[in-house]
Write a structure and sequence with these properties.
This protein has eight helices and 14 strands. It is of the alpha+beta class. The strands form three sheets. The chain has a seven-stranded mixed sheet, sandwiched between helices. Helix 5 packs parallel to helix 6. It binds D-MYO-inositol-1-phosphate. D-MYO-inositol-1-phosphate (IPD) binds next to strand 4.
Length: 284
């Protein structure tokens, strides 16, 4: 669809522009605040807030009827927290904020447009390494213009699986994460990696560098853009309900994701299914 191409160009343009802004910030000391009142995790900086503002203003001028779901603005009263069927730009201004604060170059601007709750165009741009992943529904996924495909790794024993610890620091969250890692180790997975940016890790799956990624606790802004990229690279993306049963379709607001090639996702889904989880337990 031609309008999808125009949306993709608009997303690309603003990602590159705010990327310059982040590059200017990169070598400076960064003041940060924490979103949690009890732990020193889940950070945000002046750059997160400013970048999100610039992205929203850009799209508001181009598409005044579109809605927004942004990581930083969703916390303010009166702003969107839930997806509707309307065209909605889903934005993580700096995915990997902890990496950003600590000078670890695994960060990305993640932008997706969802229509009827499904991403149709997206861009994930790391302004430090200059890697730009992008996709348009039905038109494939690309890294700096080069077409991507997921790996064809046939089994966990040959797979590099990626996940992240996320922000839960209670006993429920720790037991949940350690239990799943333990299961993978017992199955003799080749390697486990954690990058601290869900968005980039999922794009690494699209590029065939990682074979699979899963994480619980993620929000739509962490996974919407990269989820489309991995599916357009021939991968499969699934999500689970609170009883650990598979949803029939990948849901952007499920608060979890598993992706990879079809064979590995089936094997991983067996490992992860039955992972009972509620956002309330996870976050309290
Ligand atoms: C976070 C990162 C991190 C993941 C968290 C996300 P943020 O995004 O993607 O790797 O573990 O679940 O919330 O907060 O840096 O934008």
């Amino acid at each position: 669809m031609e309008e999808f191409d125009a949306y993709a160009r608009a997303a690309d343009e603003i990602a590159l522009s705010v990327g310059k802004f982040i590059q200017d910030f990169w070598n400076k000391p960064k003041d940060f605040q924490t979103k949690s009142e009890v732990t020193s995790v889940d950070l945000f900086t002046e750059a997160d807030v400013e970048v999100e503002k610039r992205i929203i203003n850009h799209f508001k001028q181009l598409y005044p009827t579109h809605r927004f779901l942004g990581e930083e603005s969703s916390h303010s009263e009166g702003n969107e927290k839930n997806l509707t069927d309307d065209p909605t730009w889903i934005i993580d201004p700096v995915d990997g904020t902890t990496n950003f604060v600590h000078g670890i170059p695994q960060i990305a601007i993640c932008i997706a447009l969802a229509i009827k709750r499904k991403a149709v165009v997206s861009v994930v741009y790391n302004p430090i390494t200059n890697e730009k992943f992008s996709a348009i529904r039905g038109k494939g996924a690309f890294l700096n213009g080069k077409k991507l495909s997921v790996s064809n790794t046939p089994s966990l024993g040959k797979a590099v699986v990626s996940t992240n610890i996320g922000y839960s620091r209670n006993q429920f969250g720790s037991a949940f994460m350690l239990n799943n890692i333990n299961k993978l180790l017992n199955l003799k997975v080749r390697a486990i990696r954690m990058t601290g940016s869900a968005g980039l890790s999922i794009c690494e799956v699209a590029a065939g560098r990682f074979d699979s990624f899963y994480e619980w606790g993620v929000h739509a802004w962490d996974v919407a853009a990269s989820g489309l990229i991995v599916m357009e690279a021939g991968g499969v993306c699934v999500s689970f309900d609170e009883n650990g049963a598979l949803h029939t379709e990948f849901e952007l607001q499920a608060r979890n994701i598993l992706c990879g090639n079809k064979t590995l996702v089936a094997e991983m889904a067996d490992v992860l299914k039955g992972s009972k989880w509620t956002a309330k337990e996870w976050e309290k």
